[in-house]
Amino acid sequence: MLDVKLLEILACPQCRNAVVPDEVHQWLYCNHCAVRYRVDGNIPIMLPDEAEKVPGPSDRKAGS
Q: To the nearest 10°, the Cα dihedral for 18, 47, 14, 34?
């Protein structure tokens, strides 16, 4: 798990808003940009090129 002090200072590199970890600390989410950053071996990979878009309701196909 990521250190609480680290989580307090981490920010999205694109918008500078706070990021929020998932329950098992494998991803850090930026709700403002709707992207997530992976955590590899307790090291957040906070590079804009590595960010993944968080799928929203409009991205899901009907019936899936």
A: -70
Question: Assign residue 41 a region: left if phi > 0, alpha if psi is -120 to 50, beta otherwise?
Answer: left
Model confidence, pTM:
0.83
Query: Which has the closest alpha carbon to 28: 63, 59, 8?
Result: 8
**What span, in angstroms and rounded, lies between the C-alpha atoms of 9 and 21?**
13
pLDDT tens across 41-61, in order? 999 999 999 999 997 776 545
CATH number of the domain bearing residue 42: 2.20.25.10
